[in-house]
Amino acid sequence: MSGIETVKVIVEAEREAARILDMAQSKATAVRAQLDLQIQQQRELILQAAKKHAADILQRAEEEGKVEAQNYEKASEATVHDLVTKASLKKSAAVERLLGILLGGKG
After folding, report:
1. Please, what is the end-to-end C-alpha distance for the chain in angstroms?
2. pTM
3. Residues 24, 27, 33, 37, CA torsion sign
4. Main-chain dihedrals φ then ψ at residue 2, nearest 5 degrees
5. What's the mean pLDDT in 23-34?
């Protein structure tokens, strides 16, 4: 092999190496872009799952709050009913005593 042929082989090998390097860089860039896309998709999935979890917690808290309010309302109604009943019973006794005083004082 002559010196010129050797130089041609070396030049061709360098061109091939440069082409392979360009291909590798292109592939690396594509892989990075794909990874960035996958990372973004995973972030979105995690964010959506977190939003759903937060919405579920809020929904459950609202439902528990409604149940607690209903229980409090029922308890309050029972307390009011008891107070009204006691007041009614005392009213009858008070009216009877007043009538007794009024009727007894006139006689």
Report:
1. 153
2. 0.53
3. negative
4. -85, 170
5. 96
